[in-house]
Amino acid sequence: MLTLYYSPGACAMASHSALEEAGADFVLEKIDLKSGQQRTPEYLAINPAGATPALNTDKGVITQNAAILSYVAESFPDASLAPVGDPFEMARFNAFNGFLGSSLHPALGKVLFSHPPLQGEARDQALDQALAKLDLAEQRLVEGPWVFGARWTLADDYLMVFERWARQARLLDPARYPKLNAHLDAVQQRPAVARMLKAEGLEPIAA
Length: 207
Fold this sequence. Notes:
Layout: E1 2-6, H1 13-22, E2 26-30, H2 41-44, E3 54-57, E4 60-63, H3 65-75, H4 87-113, H5 120-141, H6 154-168, H7 178-188, H8 191-199
Parallel strand pairs: 1-2
Antiparallel strand pairs: 1-3, 3-4
């Protein structure tokens, strides 16, 4: 059986949603990031990077959302979670997820989760960079209504994580980001995402 190590509301929501979308048989192991559980020897033995998500499979542990999403999509091809079997479209899927993990996530995270919180000019600069990444997604990367146009994929559930963070922080201005706001509303209505939110003790974030 698969085991997903996660923290409620963190980026592991993407991997959690993926397993729900796949109809996978899995169990959840909550990691309390605020108390530092991710830095304990027990968890570092699972993921030496000390981060979530981590997915324990029968072959070993997979880390990083982008890798887990690809693994779930290829492990459950009948669920149509990604364009499995089309090398070009899978490359686009992986590229978008790579953008989320390596570009949008750290940019938003710097604004929202820096310790101590950023102040003054440092925060202004970080905010400008984060909004520029959201602009790129809004204007160039998200085709609409889903990331890749008419076809939903697990990339949509991954993008939802950062849209939720941005909306919660009042950064997802509906006038500036109409496409991302509509996308978040649509993804939060998916039954699998609703199950994920309920399991993590979360609610949809309204506009």
